Amino acid sequence: MESSTRTSTGRFGKLRNLILGLQHVLAMYSGGILVPLLIGAALHFNAQQMAYLISADIFMTAIGTLFQIKGTRYTGIAMPVVIGSAVQTVSPLINIGSTLGIGAMYGATIAAGIFVFLISGLFARLREFFPPVVTGSLITVIGFTLIPVGFQNWGGGDTAAKSFGSLTNLSIGLVTIIIILLFTIFAKGFIKSIAILLGIILGTVFAGLLGQVSLQPVAEASWFHMPTPFFLATPTFHWSAMIMMMIVALTSMMESTGVYFALADLTGRKLTNEDMAKGYRAEGLAVILSGLFNTFPYSTFSQNVGVVRLSGVKTRQPIYYAVLILLLIGLLPKFGALATIIPSSVLGGAMIILFGTIGVQGITILKQVDFNAERNLMIAGISIGAAIGVTVYPQIFQHLPELVKLVIQNSVVITSVLAVLLNVLLPGREKEVN
Fold it and tell me: How far is residue 268's CA from residue 284's CA, in Å, rounded to a whole number?
């Protein structure tokens, strides 16, 4: 009897983690396939190339995530993180691909991955410049500056479409938000922990009742596709392209730094320099593989921090199941197509809650800061204010050189640079330990 109970509990635990893993996958999926969709469309990839891009991208996302969660002597942050294609790479990769060719994109990506791997130890030592006033500002910005992305999806995704902001889209997003709120506030235990997943599923059902869900992508998708090295192009190496992608890689590392600190705050873990270095190395390896398998550079996804916070499940077990699901989706495009039928308005409703909670987490970190000290007020005020300004009006820097724009039009980078610089330059800095 006791043995049977143990077995049942074990089975329930596995099912529970599987469902929690699916929640992580759905939270990151639209962001995960956004980069290949945007780059593929801009470079006029055909249907076969696009199908490969998405399948291979999801498969390599799983491999990269596994590098991160499975800590080894040299790699892996060993926290509940999920990686995915970095959206800040879209513009530079389109630029490289359209001028130097597709092979140059992948050569520059491989070079950027090697660069990240080699500088990981050095970059990790910068953590002493990230006291709570800096990390709190950074995490606040990561959350709140993504809110417009959630609103864009809520309206339907395509701002140029006539249906953008229609009552149908608004009602679908609103119903999704209400469902997530109800489960979060009134449910208990496991059901509460999968509130986001239930909101996405039931929101999609509601959208289906309104005729907004098509199963055609599932019918058209193939059953099996194996990622293959150099499937689209053999990498070629150009200094200008490699330097550009190395600069972009630095912006991804800054964003990942904020995610690491956010998760450390959630899980109560004390990160060391070596922990940070292993996290960066894992990302570097993932970026190298993305170049070899002709996908696109990866970074740690911030939306999954919101899932960890809302679900209350802070272990890595659900992420292992998320990796398994992503591997299957990458190998079996029909299963991957199931996730693509979720309307943008449903995802938008979920994103608003996820990104909002990340922003609030940054505010909770800022609560530790003494804002009676004017230096702290200036650090947080200027760095957060500049990030919001850049998010709303990135075109203010349109006349600057392309490489400069790549850096300062990224809200996370602008916050990191300003907060760190102000913390170093303003008088009264104390040696703070995260």
Answer: 26
